[in-house]
Amino acid sequence: MAQGYFYCGKKEDTATFNYFFRTNPFKGGFTVFAGLQDLLKMISEFTFNASDIEYLKAQGFRKEFLEYLAGFRFSGNILSAREGEIMFPNEPVVQVEGNVIECQLIESLLLNILNFESLIATKAFRIKMVTNGKIFSDFGLRRAQGLGSLHASRAAFIGGASSTSNVMAGKIFDIPVSGTQAHSWIQSFDSELEAFRAYVEAHPDNSILLVDTYDTLRSGIPHAIAVAKELAESGKKLLAVRLDSGDLAYLSKKARKMLDDAGLQNVKIVASNQLNEHVIKSLLKDQNAAIDAFGVGTELITGKDDAALDGVYKLSGINGQPKMKFSENIEKVTLPCKKQVYRCYDSSGMFFRDAILLAGENPEEAETIYNAFYPERNTNISKLKKEPLLNAVIKNGEIISDSYSLEDIHQYLLTRASLLPDEHKRFISPHIYKVGISEKLLETRNALVKSLK
Questions:
Q1: Are 159 and 123 in contact (CB under 8 A)?
Q2: Could you check whether the bond before residue 174 is cis, i.e. omega within 30 degrees of 0?
Q3: Which residues pair with 158 in a beta bridge?
Q4: pLDDT of 113-153, one tens digit each?
Q5: Judging by DSSP bridges, how do beta strands 293-296 and 311-318 pair with one another?
Q6: Among 94, 170, 294, 443, which has the highest number of CB atoms less than 10 A from its own CB?
Q7: Alpha-carbon distance 300 to 277, whole Å?
Protein backbone atom coordinates (compact mmCIF):
# COMPACT_ATOMS: atom_id res chain seq x y z
CA MET A 1 0.00 0.00 0.00
CA ALA A 2 2.80 2.44 0.86
CA GLN A 3 4.50 1.83 -2.49
CA GLY A 4 1.15 2.23 -4.20
CA TYR A 5 0.57 5.60 -2.55
CA PHE A 6 4.09 6.63 -3.53
CA TYR A 7 3.64 5.93 -7.25
CA CYS A 8 0.04 7.05 -7.71
CA GLY A 9 0.74 10.59 -6.56
CA LYS A 10 -0.70 10.32 -3.02
CA LYS A 11 2.49 10.36 -0.98
CA GLU A 12 1.88 13.97 0.12
CA ASP A 13 -1.80 13.38 0.95
CA THR A 14 -2.59 14.03 4.60
CA ALA A 15 -4.59 11.47 6.52
CA THR A 16 -6.25 10.95 9.89
CA PHE A 17 -6.61 7.51 11.44
CA ASN A 18 -8.37 6.52 14.67
CA TYR A 19 -7.52 3.56 16.88
CA PHE A 20 -10.43 2.13 18.84
CA PHE A 21 -11.81 -1.25 19.90
CA ARG A 22 -15.29 -2.61 19.33
CA THR A 23 -15.88 -4.73 22.43
CA ASN A 24 -14.44 -5.01 25.93
CA PRO A 25 -12.45 -8.19 26.58
CA PHE A 26 -13.55 -10.95 28.97
CA LYS A 27 -17.22 -9.89 28.63
CA GLY A 28 -16.32 -7.04 30.95
CA GLY A 29 -17.52 -3.49 31.32
CA PHE A 30 -14.30 -1.60 30.55
CA THR A 31 -10.80 -1.83 29.07
CA VAL A 32 -7.50 -0.64 30.57
CA PHE A 33 -5.52 1.26 27.94
CA ALA A 34 -1.86 0.16 27.98
CA GLY A 35 1.18 0.09 25.72
CA LEU A 36 1.35 3.78 24.82
CA GLN A 37 4.89 4.53 26.01
CA ASP A 38 6.22 1.40 24.31
CA LEU A 39 4.51 2.46 21.09
CA LEU A 40 5.81 6.03 21.17
CA LYS A 41 9.37 4.84 21.67
CA MET A 42 9.08 2.39 18.77
CA ILE A 43 7.60 5.01 16.46
CA SER A 44 10.38 7.48 17.32
CA GLU A 45 12.92 4.79 16.36
CA PHE A 46 11.04 3.57 13.25
CA THR A 47 13.57 3.58 10.38
CA PHE A 48 14.73 1.30 7.56
CA ASN A 49 18.43 0.39 7.67
CA ALA A 50 20.56 -0.90 4.79
CA SER A 51 19.74 -4.51 5.57
CA ASP A 52 16.02 -3.72 5.59
CA ILE A 53 16.30 -2.01 2.22
CA GLU A 54 18.18 -4.95 0.71
CA TYR A 55 15.53 -7.36 1.98
CA LEU A 56 12.70 -5.26 0.58
CA LYS A 57 14.54 -4.97 -2.73
CA ALA A 58 14.63 -8.76 -2.89
CA GLN A 59 10.86 -8.76 -2.35
CA GLY A 60 10.39 -6.74 -5.52
CA PHE A 61 9.99 -3.21 -4.20
CA ARG A 62 11.10 -0.48 -6.60
CA LYS A 63 14.20 1.71 -6.47
CA GLU A 64 12.63 5.16 -5.95
CA PHE A 65 10.35 3.89 -3.22
CA LEU A 66 13.25 2.18 -1.45
CA GLU A 67 15.20 5.44 -1.57
CA TYR A 68 12.20 7.09 0.11
CA LEU A 69 12.18 4.43 2.82
CA ALA A 70 15.92 4.81 3.40
CA GLY A 71 15.26 8.34 4.67
CA PHE A 72 11.97 7.57 6.39
CA ARG A 73 11.09 8.84 9.84
CA PHE A 74 7.62 9.39 11.25
CA SER A 75 6.93 13.13 11.13
CA GLY A 76 3.24 13.25 11.97
CA ASN A 77 1.16 14.04 15.04
CA ILE A 78 -0.45 11.67 17.53
CA LEU A 79 -3.11 12.39 20.12
CA SER A 80 -3.88 9.78 22.72
CA ALA A 81 -5.63 8.98 25.95
CA ARG A 82 -3.24 8.67 28.86
CA GLU A 83 -1.81 5.21 29.48
CA GLY A 84 -3.71 3.56 32.32
CA GLU A 85 -6.97 5.27 31.34
CA ILE A 86 -10.27 3.39 31.53
CA MET A 87 -11.71 3.30 28.00
CA PHE A 88 -14.84 1.97 26.32
CA PRO A 89 -15.84 0.50 22.95
CA ASN A 90 -16.13 2.53 19.76
CA GLU A 91 -14.48 5.71 21.04
CA PRO A 92 -11.15 6.99 19.67
CA VAL A 93 -8.31 6.04 21.98
CA VAL A 94 -5.48 7.21 19.70
CA GLN A 95 -5.65 9.60 16.72
CA VAL A 96 -2.82 9.65 14.16
CA GLU A 97 -2.32 12.51 11.68
CA GLY A 98 0.33 12.74 8.98
CA ASN A 99 1.00 11.89 5.37
CA VAL A 100 -0.86 8.80 4.29
CA ILE A 101 2.28 6.67 3.88
CA GLU A 102 3.63 7.25 7.38
CA CYS A 103 0.20 6.79 8.93
CA GLN A 104 -0.21 3.50 7.08
CA LEU A 105 3.29 2.18 7.84
CA ILE A 106 2.81 2.33 11.62
CA GLU A 107 -0.60 0.61 11.59
CA SER A 108 0.50 -2.95 12.34
CA LEU A 109 2.98 -1.82 14.99
CA LEU A 110 0.34 0.29 16.72
CA LEU A 111 -2.25 -2.47 16.70
CA ASN A 112 0.22 -5.12 17.83
CA ILE A 113 1.40 -3.17 20.89
CA LEU A 114 -1.81 -1.47 22.02
CA ASN A 115 -4.15 -4.42 21.51
CA PHE A 116 -1.92 -6.87 23.36
CA GLU A 117 -0.87 -4.71 26.29
CA SER A 118 -4.41 -3.40 26.80
CA LEU A 119 -5.71 -6.98 26.84
CA ILE A 120 -3.23 -8.13 29.50
CA ALA A 121 -3.51 -4.97 31.61
CA THR A 122 -7.29 -5.41 31.67
CA LYS A 123 -6.94 -9.05 32.73
CA ALA A 124 -4.49 -8.11 35.47
CA PHE A 125 -6.75 -5.39 36.81
CA ARG A 126 -9.69 -7.79 36.94
CA ILE A 127 -7.51 -10.01 39.13
CA LYS A 128 -6.49 -6.99 41.21
CA MET A 129 -10.15 -6.18 41.87
CA VAL A 130 -10.82 -9.53 43.57
CA THR A 131 -7.65 -10.04 45.62
CA ASN A 132 -8.88 -7.82 48.49
CA GLY A 133 -5.52 -6.11 48.84
CA LYS A 134 -3.51 -9.34 48.67
CA ILE A 135 -0.64 -9.30 46.18
CA PHE A 136 -0.25 -11.40 43.06
CA SER A 137 2.75 -12.01 40.84
CA ASP A 138 3.03 -12.64 37.11
CA PHE A 139 4.15 -16.29 36.77
CA GLY A 140 3.30 -16.63 33.09
CA LEU A 141 6.57 -16.65 31.11
CA ARG A 142 6.57 -20.37 30.32
CA ARG A 143 3.07 -20.26 28.85
CA ALA A 144 3.37 -16.93 27.04
CA GLN A 145 3.41 -16.42 23.27
CA GLY A 146 7.13 -16.13 22.65
CA LEU A 147 8.77 -12.78 23.31
CA GLY A 148 5.33 -11.25 23.76
CA SER A 149 5.93 -12.29 27.36
CA LEU A 150 8.07 -9.17 27.85
CA HIS A 151 5.28 -6.72 27.01
CA ALA A 152 2.78 -8.94 28.80
CA SER A 153 4.77 -8.65 32.03
CA ARG A 154 4.84 -4.86 31.62
CA ALA A 155 1.09 -4.75 31.06
CA ALA A 156 0.44 -7.10 33.98
CA PHE A 157 2.29 -4.72 36.30
CA ILE A 158 0.24 -1.78 35.03
CA GLY A 159 -2.90 -3.78 35.77
CA GLY A 160 -1.85 -4.64 39.31
CA ALA A 161 0.71 -7.45 39.49
CA SER A 162 3.26 -6.72 42.23
CA SER A 163 6.16 -8.49 40.51
CA THR A 164 7.11 -10.86 37.71
CA SER A 165 9.05 -14.10 37.42
CA ASN A 166 10.31 -12.86 34.02
CA VAL A 167 13.75 -11.50 34.91
CA MET A 168 14.35 -10.03 31.44
CA ALA A 169 11.12 -8.06 31.68
CA GLY A 170 12.19 -6.94 35.14
CA LYS A 171 15.43 -5.58 33.72
CA ILE A 172 13.92 -3.89 30.66
CA PHE A 173 10.91 -2.31 32.36
CA ASP A 174 12.17 -1.95 35.94
CA ILE A 175 9.58 -4.35 37.35
CA PRO A 176 10.21 -6.02 40.73
CA VAL A 177 11.14 -9.68 40.20
CA SER A 178 10.27 -12.62 42.39
CA GLY A 179 10.57 -16.37 42.14
CA THR A 180 10.39 -19.66 43.93
CA GLN A 181 11.52 -23.22 43.38
CA ALA A 182 10.07 -25.80 41.02
CA HIS A 183 9.23 -29.41 41.78
CA SER A 184 12.42 -30.41 39.95
CA TRP A 185 14.45 -28.80 42.74
CA ILE A 186 12.75 -30.96 45.36
CA GLN A 187 13.03 -34.09 43.23
CA SER A 188 16.75 -33.57 42.59
CA PHE A 189 17.53 -34.29 46.26
CA ASP A 190 17.26 -37.57 48.16
CA SER A 191 14.62 -36.10 50.45
CA GLU A 192 12.25 -33.16 50.60
CA LEU A 193 13.74 -31.99 53.89
CA GLU A 194 17.24 -31.97 52.39
CA ALA A 195 15.93 -29.98 49.44
CA PHE A 196 14.32 -27.39 51.70
CA ARG A 197 17.46 -27.02 53.82
CA ALA A 198 19.66 -26.55 50.77
CA TYR A 199 17.32 -23.93 49.34
CA VAL A 200 17.09 -21.77 52.46
CA GLU A 201 20.86 -21.99 52.85
CA ALA A 202 21.19 -20.48 49.38
CA HIS A 203 18.37 -17.97 49.97
CA PRO A 204 18.17 -17.33 53.72
CA ASP A 205 16.31 -14.01 53.46
CA ASN A 206 13.58 -14.67 50.91
CA SER A 207 12.79 -18.38 50.67
CA ILE A 208 9.41 -19.67 49.55
CA LEU A 209 9.14 -23.45 49.88
CA LEU A 210 7.03 -25.49 47.45
CA VAL A 211 5.22 -28.00 49.65
CA ASP A 212 3.14 -30.21 47.33
CA THR A 213 5.77 -32.34 45.56
CA TYR A 214 4.93 -35.47 47.58
CA ASP A 215 2.22 -34.82 50.18
CA THR A 216 1.31 -31.29 51.24
CA LEU A 217 -0.01 -31.93 54.75
CA ARG A 218 1.92 -35.06 55.74
CA SER A 219 5.27 -34.08 54.28
CA GLY A 220 5.57 -30.62 52.76
CA ILE A 221 4.19 -28.49 55.61
CA PRO A 222 5.90 -30.49 58.42
CA HIS A 223 9.24 -30.22 56.64
CA ALA A 224 8.71 -26.51 56.00
CA ILE A 225 7.96 -26.03 59.70
CA ALA A 226 11.17 -27.83 60.66
CA VAL A 227 13.24 -25.68 58.32
CA ALA A 228 11.49 -22.48 59.44
CA LYS A 229 12.40 -23.22 63.04
CA GLU A 230 16.00 -23.94 62.07
CA LEU A 231 16.09 -20.60 60.24
CA ALA A 232 14.68 -18.83 63.29
CA GLU A 233 17.58 -20.11 65.39
CA SER A 234 19.93 -18.20 63.09
CA GLY A 235 17.82 -15.05 63.27
CA LYS A 236 16.20 -15.54 59.85
CA LYS A 237 12.58 -16.07 58.83
CA LEU A 238 10.97 -18.32 56.26
CA LEU A 239 9.04 -16.02 53.93
CA ALA A 240 6.28 -18.35 52.72
CA VAL A 241 5.15 -21.77 51.55
CA ARG A 242 3.57 -22.32 48.14
CA LEU A 243 0.63 -24.53 47.23
CA ASP A 244 0.54 -25.54 43.57
CA SER A 245 -2.03 -28.34 43.36
CA GLY A 246 -5.01 -29.91 45.06
CA ASP A 247 -7.89 -28.18 46.81
CA LEU A 248 -6.29 -24.82 47.48
CA ALA A 249 -8.95 -23.61 49.92
CA TYR A 250 -8.86 -26.78 52.04
CA LEU A 251 -5.08 -27.13 51.97
CA SER A 252 -4.49 -23.47 52.79
CA LYS A 253 -6.69 -23.59 55.86
CA LYS A 254 -5.08 -26.80 57.10
CA ALA A 255 -1.61 -25.43 56.40
CA ARG A 256 -2.43 -22.16 58.17
CA LYS A 257 -3.46 -24.00 61.32
CA MET A 258 -0.34 -26.17 61.27
CA LEU A 259 1.91 -23.14 60.83
CA ASP A 260 0.11 -21.17 63.52
CA ASP A 261 0.22 -24.07 65.97
CA ALA A 262 3.98 -24.19 65.39
CA GLY A 263 4.27 -20.50 66.24
CA LEU A 264 4.91 -19.51 62.62
CA GLN A 265 2.15 -16.95 62.15
CA ASN A 266 4.55 -14.81 60.12
CA VAL A 267 5.00 -17.45 57.40
CA LYS A 268 2.73 -16.59 54.48
CA ILE A 269 0.85 -18.94 52.16
CA VAL A 270 1.18 -18.43 48.40
CA ALA A 271 -1.07 -20.23 45.92
CA SER A 272 -0.60 -20.95 42.24
CA ASN A 273 -2.01 -23.45 39.69
CA GLN A 274 -4.26 -22.26 36.84
CA LEU A 275 -5.62 -19.26 38.72
CA ASN A 276 -7.75 -16.49 37.25
CA GLU A 277 -10.01 -13.76 38.58
CA HIS A 278 -12.98 -16.09 38.96
CA VAL A 279 -11.05 -18.77 40.87
CA ILE A 280 -9.40 -16.21 43.14
CA LYS A 281 -12.73 -14.54 43.86
CA SER A 282 -14.21 -17.90 44.81
CA LEU A 283 -11.23 -18.85 47.00
CA LEU A 284 -11.34 -15.62 48.99
CA LYS A 285 -15.00 -14.70 49.06
CA ASP A 286 -16.81 -18.04 48.97
CA GLN A 287 -14.33 -20.41 50.58
CA ASN A 288 -12.44 -18.17 53.03
CA ALA A 289 -9.12 -19.62 51.87
CA ALA A 290 -6.13 -18.79 54.07
CA ILE A 291 -4.07 -17.51 51.13
CA ASP A 292 -1.90 -14.41 51.43
CA ALA A 293 -0.61 -14.07 47.86
CA PHE A 294 -1.06 -15.56 44.41
CA GLY A 295 1.14 -16.54 41.49
CA VAL A 296 -0.92 -16.21 38.32
CA GLY A 297 0.48 -17.64 35.13
CA THR A 298 -1.21 -18.96 32.01
CA GLU A 299 -4.56 -17.20 32.23
CA LEU A 300 -2.99 -13.82 32.97
CA ILE A 301 -0.15 -13.81 30.48
CA THR A 302 -2.24 -15.15 27.57
CA GLY A 303 -5.34 -13.08 28.30
CA LYS A 304 -7.45 -16.21 28.52
CA ASP A 305 -10.30 -16.59 27.48
CA ASP A 306 -9.87 -13.82 24.89
CA ALA A 307 -7.10 -14.41 22.38
CA ALA A 308 -6.97 -10.74 21.38
CA LEU A 309 -8.48 -7.32 21.88
CA ASP A 310 -10.40 -6.41 18.72
CA GLY A 311 -8.83 -2.99 18.32
CA VAL A 312 -8.86 -1.49 14.82
CA TYR A 313 -7.19 1.41 13.02
CA LYS A 314 -9.48 3.16 10.58
CA LEU A 315 -9.14 6.08 8.18
CA SER A 316 -11.41 9.00 9.15
CA GLY A 317 -10.15 11.71 6.84
CA ILE A 318 -7.95 12.39 3.80
CA ASN A 319 -6.79 15.88 2.75
CA GLY A 320 -9.33 17.41 5.12
CA GLN A 321 -12.22 15.45 3.62
CA PRO A 322 -14.21 13.18 5.95
CA LYS A 323 -14.03 9.45 5.26
CA MET A 324 -15.85 6.49 6.77
CA LYS A 325 -16.23 2.76 6.33
CA PHE A 326 -19.57 1.19 5.48
CA SER A 327 -20.59 -2.34 6.39
CA GLU A 328 -23.61 -4.59 6.35
CA ASN A 329 -22.77 -5.11 10.03
CA ILE A 330 -23.83 -1.85 11.67
CA GLU A 331 -21.27 -2.23 14.45
CA LYS A 332 -18.49 -2.03 11.85
CA VAL A 333 -19.55 1.35 10.41
CA THR A 334 -16.93 3.95 11.42
CA LEU A 335 -17.08 7.64 12.32
CA PRO A 336 -15.52 10.29 10.03
CA CYS A 337 -13.35 13.34 10.78
CA LYS A 338 -10.87 14.35 13.44
CA LYS A 339 -12.43 13.96 16.86
CA GLN A 340 -12.06 14.58 20.56
CA VAL A 341 -13.44 12.46 23.40
CA TYR A 342 -14.86 14.08 26.53
CA ARG A 343 -15.53 12.26 29.76
CA CYS A 344 -18.69 13.52 31.43
CA TYR A 345 -19.07 13.33 35.21
CA ASP A 346 -22.27 13.07 37.22
CA SER A 347 -23.08 15.22 40.26
CA SER A 348 -21.13 12.81 42.49
CA GLY A 349 -17.98 13.16 40.40
CA MET A 350 -18.26 9.67 38.94
CA PHE A 351 -17.86 8.65 35.27
CA PHE A 352 -21.28 9.00 33.62
CA ARG A 353 -20.97 9.22 29.83
CA ASP A 354 -18.27 9.65 27.17
CA ALA A 355 -18.97 12.11 24.37
CA ILE A 356 -17.29 11.99 20.95
CA LEU A 357 -17.20 15.43 19.35
CA LEU A 358 -15.69 16.88 16.20
CA ALA A 359 -12.20 18.28 16.81
CA GLY A 360 -12.54 21.95 17.69
CA GLU A 361 -16.19 21.63 18.64
CA ASN A 362 -17.06 23.52 21.85
CA PRO A 363 -18.07 20.88 24.40
CA GLU A 364 -20.28 23.38 26.22
CA GLU A 365 -22.36 23.77 23.06
CA ALA A 366 -22.90 20.02 22.71
CA GLU A 367 -26.09 19.69 24.70
CA THR A 368 -27.04 16.17 23.61
CA ILE A 369 -25.08 13.09 22.62
CA TYR A 370 -26.55 10.29 20.52
CA ASN A 371 -25.93 6.58 20.26
CA ALA A 372 -23.86 6.23 17.09
CA PHE A 373 -25.92 3.30 15.82
CA TYR A 374 -29.35 4.11 17.30
CA PRO A 375 -29.60 7.93 17.52
CA GLU A 376 -33.08 7.76 19.05
CA ARG A 377 -31.17 6.83 22.22
CA ASN A 378 -29.64 10.04 23.52
CA THR A 379 -28.55 11.85 26.67
CA ASN A 380 -28.50 15.51 27.66
CA ILE A 381 -25.02 16.44 28.90
CA SER A 382 -25.36 20.22 28.93
CA LYS A 383 -24.91 20.61 32.70
CA LEU A 384 -22.22 17.97 33.21
CA LYS A 385 -18.54 18.55 33.91
CA LYS A 386 -16.48 17.44 30.90
CA GLU A 387 -12.83 16.43 30.55
CA PRO A 388 -10.97 15.96 27.23
CA LEU A 389 -9.24 12.57 27.04
CA LEU A 390 -7.08 12.89 23.89
CA ASN A 391 -3.91 14.93 24.28
CA ALA A 392 -0.90 15.46 22.03
CA VAL A 393 1.85 12.89 22.63
CA ILE A 394 3.83 13.24 19.37
CA LYS A 395 4.16 16.49 17.43
CA ASN A 396 5.97 16.61 14.09
CA GLY A 397 7.47 13.23 14.84
CA GLU A 398 8.85 14.17 18.27
CA ILE A 399 7.58 12.79 21.57
CA ILE A 400 6.22 15.69 23.64
CA SER A 401 4.31 13.85 26.36
CA ASP A 402 5.61 13.20 29.84
CA SER A 403 7.14 9.81 30.59
CA TYR A 404 5.69 7.90 33.54
CA SER A 405 7.00 5.00 35.56
CA LEU A 406 4.93 1.81 35.55
CA GLU A 407 4.01 2.49 39.17
CA ASP A 408 2.77 5.97 38.16
CA ILE A 409 0.65 4.41 35.40
CA HIS A 410 -0.78 1.84 37.80
CA GLN A 411 -1.65 4.51 40.37
CA TYR A 412 -3.35 6.55 37.65
CA LEU A 413 -5.39 3.47 36.75
CA LEU A 414 -6.43 3.04 40.39
CA THR A 415 -7.51 6.68 40.57
CA ARG A 416 -9.55 6.46 37.39
CA ALA A 417 -11.09 3.10 38.27
CA SER A 418 -12.26 4.53 41.60
CA LEU A 419 -14.45 6.92 39.57
CA LEU A 420 -16.09 4.12 37.57
CA PRO A 421 -19.39 3.02 39.15
CA ASP A 422 -19.34 -0.52 40.52
CA GLU A 423 -22.04 -1.79 38.17
CA HIS A 424 -19.55 -1.48 35.30
CA LYS A 425 -16.96 -3.57 37.18
CA ARG A 426 -18.96 -6.71 37.87
CA PHE A 427 -17.97 -9.84 35.98
CA ILE A 428 -21.45 -11.10 35.13
CA SER A 429 -23.51 -8.91 32.77
CA PRO A 430 -21.78 -5.63 33.63
CA HIS A 431 -23.74 -2.45 33.02
CA ILE A 432 -22.90 -0.99 29.61
CA TYR A 433 -21.14 2.36 29.82
CA LYS A 434 -22.78 4.78 27.39
CA VAL A 435 -20.70 6.47 24.68
CA GLY A 436 -22.40 8.95 22.36
CA ILE A 437 -21.62 11.34 19.51
CA SER A 438 -22.47 15.01 19.24
CA GLU A 439 -25.22 16.34 17.00
CA LYS A 440 -22.66 17.95 14.68
CA LEU A 441 -20.77 14.68 14.28
CA LEU A 442 -24.04 12.84 13.71
CA GLU A 443 -25.05 15.34 11.03
CA THR A 444 -21.62 15.14 9.38
CA ARG A 445 -21.80 11.36 9.28
CA ASN A 446 -25.35 11.33 7.92
CA ALA A 447 -24.47 13.84 5.20
CA LEU A 448 -21.48 11.73 4.19
CA VAL A 449 -23.62 8.60 4.09
CA LYS A 450 -26.15 10.37 1.88
CA SER A 451 -23.50 11.70 -0.51
CA LEU A 452 -21.78 8.33 -0.85
CA LYS A 453 -25.01 6.48 -1.44
A1: yes
A2: no
A3: none
A4: 999 999 999 999 999 999 999 999 999 999 999 999 999 99
A5: unpaired
A6: 294
A7: 9
